[in-house]
Amino acid sequence: MKVSIIGGPTDSGKTTLILDLAKYLTSNGEKIGVIVQETGEVDYDEKTLSDLGISTKEVNSVCIPCSLDTDIRSNLLMLQEESSPDTVFIETEETVLPHKLKADLERMALPDTELLPAIVVVNSTEAETSSDQLIEYARKQLEGAEIICIDMIELDKKEHIADVRKMILELNTNAKVLECPVARDESFLKMLLE
To answer: Which residues form a coiled coil (predicted)?
Structure first.
């Protein structure tokens, strides 16, 4: 089972990205699971999830890292037992550091589990262009991410996108920084799953 952890600020495009990835994978015959942190309204449409055959689990904790030993581990194991998904997406809230969650899961040594690169999604239209303007969690997410998706680029100016990219690369020279188009083709989605 592959596990992909996707984080970022509220309204950054995480849910849409996960649904796009899930549609791509299910069209290739894979079974998908989703774990989402439940602290407010869930953006997943139940009919869409059902149509795609996606199994879901919710973490009803204010803090995903505080619940790792119980909620995340048990939900991953339950999903594995109940529906044997090929890939599970964990969508985290903006205060959670995907790379730290990934490191914690690596230490748990879950059986038959491969952890994919930690992804952070940034809404280009709302993104800051100076690291001094970032809140602490946003900065730490960007610093630790393995892949950073600058989303909603069609709604932003090229100059602003370039400034956002520059700021990201100043914080994290090791990350793969991708501009995410609204229409995500197969080759783009594959890059997020390698």
So the answer is: none
Residue 57 has phi, psi (to 5 degrees) of: -135, 145
Rg (CA), the chain: 16
Please tell me the distance from the alpha carbon of residue 17 to that of residue 150, in angstroms, as a whole number.
Answer: 11
**Position with higher pLDDT, 110 vs 20:** 20
DSSP count for the chain of H helices, then E strands: 7, 8
Residues in the chain: 194
Chain centroid to Cα 13, Å, comes to 9
Instruction: Note the CATH architecture for domain 2-192.
Output: 3-Layer(aba) Sandwich (3.40)
pLDDT in tens, 169-188: 999 999 999 999 888 888 99
Closest to 4 in 3D by CA, of 75, 110, 89, 73: 89
Coil vs helix vs strand at 184: coil
**62 contacts: CB under 8 Å, gap ≥ 6:** 39
* Predicted local confidence at residue 115, as pLDDT: 94
